[in-house]
């Protein structure tokens, strides 16, 4: 199985790390209308940090609902703002202007 990069290039999933697999698996479980910050993902997995999660998402995240992973202030990944807003509106994600409303949209994982 392959996942597409956000840039449209293809990177074989077999080139990914176990950490990347865990990140992508978690992102696939974020429900429509909810988001997690890069730091939330790292904290949930108890490994890595926001930058490491961002690196995974920029390399392999195109095949998962990447718009559900945001900066801690609710802003989307740079360069993807309009596509994020479109997805968020379609899914009914709580917004504050053009960012996810982290108070209402944040997903805390399966144990929430």
Topology diagram in text:
Layout: E1 2-4, E2 10-12, H1 18-29, E3 36-37, H2 38-45, H3 50-60, E4 69-70, H4 81-91, E5 95-96, E6 99-100, H5 102-105
Parallel strand pairs: 3-4
Antiparallel strand pairs: 1-2, 5-6
Helix pairs in contact: 1-3, 2-3
How would you briefly describe this protein structure?
Helix content is 41%, strand content 12%.
Describe it.
It is a single chain. With 112 residues, the chain is α+β, with helices and mostly antiparallel strands. The chain has one domain (2-105): Winged helix-like DNA-binding domain superfamily/Winged helix DNA-binding domain (Arc Repressor Mutant, subunit A, Orthogonal Bundle). The chain contains 5 helices and 6 strands. It has helices spanning 18-29, 38-45, 50-60, 81-91, 102-105; strands spanning 2-4, 10-12, 36-37, 69-70, 95-96, 99-100. The strands form 3 sheets. Strands 1-2 form a two-stranded antiparallel ribbon. Helix 1 crosses helix 3. The longest helix has 12 residues, at 18-29. The chain is globular. The termini are far apart. The model is unreliable at 1-10 (pLDDT under 50). Residues 18-76 form the Methylated-DNA-[protein]-cysteine S-methyltransferase DNA binding domain. This is Methylated-DNA-[protein]-cysteine S-methyltransferase DNA binding domain-containing protein. It comes from Sphaerisporangium flaviroseum. Pfam families: DNA_binding_1. Keywords: DNA damage.
